[in-house]
Amino acid sequence: MPAELAPIDLDKAGQEMYELVADLYPICRSITGHGVRETLRRIQKRIPLLLREVPTGTRVFDWTVPKEWNIRDAYVKDWRGERVIDFQKSNLHVVSYSVPVRARLPLDELRGHLFTLPEQPDLVPYRTSYYREAWGFCLAHRRLLELADGQYEVCVDASLEPGHLTYGECHLPGETSEEVLISCHVCHPSLCNDNLSGIALSTLLAERLASRSCRYSYRFLFVPGTIGAITWLSQNEGAVERIRHGLVVTGVGDAGRITYKKSRRGDAEIDRAARHVLGRSGDDFEIREFSPYGYDERQFCSPGFDLPVGCLMRTPHGSYPQYHTSGDDLRFVHPSRLADSLAKCLQIFEVLEGNRTYVSQNPKCEPQLGRRGLYRAVGGQADPGQAEMAMLWVLNLSDGRHTLLDIAERSALPFSVVKRAADILGEHALLRESAGPSRALAERTGGRS
Ligand SMILES: [Zn+2]
């Protein structure tokens, strides 16, 4: 690709992502409503994002776009009129999608609507009730124990009415119409790692890619979890044929090691690119097999689509105590971890951008490299031996059936070194690009690779 993606001021990028997380943190988001719109509008200040509105009641495969939920205020007041649970202090205090209510209740009756975490008594849980009409409040268990018997005044000043589901879409055209899909979810209220870290990384990634010319076109989706991905797929069924690679980005700001979850295919190019990058990073990492539980890769990898979409995260959801609690706050995410996740993401895309297939123009015995100034003559390389080995590997395996990533894997050389060798050999007319093994297969079968 023309310009390298990966070199980036990581300290600056980490700080910018953290500041974006902090900016979006107070907004009360849900799967629909003004919080999602406000979030997308702030992202729009940085990248060319289009806001899409899909009406309530629209059928999307087996699902229906729900009513739109908006909340203004919510509280529980004690007999003195004091707010003992207050939405204004944290939007986590209200169960998302709570129906409007105004009532006076004794504590015993109120308890049925209160959610706490007895095992983590200082944290407020995050709860939703999207598809069952109900109302409820969340609070620290320690706070619940302090509530005296008596009458309480309950108010949820919210609306649940026909409206729209809102999502954001940013398309960055590349040299080809073949696409890389990047998806993050935008439906959680004041929680930082899940899902603001994914939003921040996707935004800076789009900003970075928008300033470069790329081989692939890139499509970024900022969608409410599950229903948003289903809605997009339902309304863009014809467009998915263009998707060559995809990544769901979520939970990328915590201190844990990086985790890549493979696509359903398990051996898609992005799965192999991620393994190559993480395996050579020198950092601890985990590669997980696909499972039909997690984030929106479930929808992209459903059998009717089976798209090559993996998932990049740090500590997997549900396996850290702060997950879906008030503990997932601004102290739980770190600029340096956000930056590290972004750098790895860019390195994976760098492999995808540069992964091509060539045919050696001198396949009968080795070409004479010395005559062309290519033997012991590659300047600026830290390890000339490695660069020469890369040229020999590229010349040997460039038979139209091996991609540069195949060659990097087989030679155990870094992709960037193999790519540089191919570029040099190409400049000396020793290589010609070919359609490649997967593309040739797709053309023969008339289907996608
Ligand atoms: Zn979540």
Write out the strand line-up for the largest beta sheet, numbering strands in chain order.
Answer: 1-10-12-11-13-16-14-15
Beta content comes to: 15-25%
The helix content, as a percent range, equals: 25-40%
> Which stretches of 5+ consecutive residues score pLDDT under 50?
none
Annotation, overall tally of beta strands: 19
Hetero compounds: zinc ion
What does this 3D model show about the protein?
The chain is built from 13 helices and 19 strands. The protein is 32% helix and 22% strand. The chain is an alpha/beta fold. The longest helix is centred in the last third of the chain and has 20 residues, at 335-354. Strands 1-10-12-11-13-16-14-15 form an eight-stranded mixed beta sheet, sandwiched between helices. Helix 5 (192-210) links the parallel strand 11 and strand 12. Zinc ion is lined by residues 188, 194, 324.
Key features of this structure:
32% helix; alpha/beta; 449 residues; 4-stranded antiparallel β-sheet
Concise account of the structure shown:
The chain has 13 helices and 19 strands.
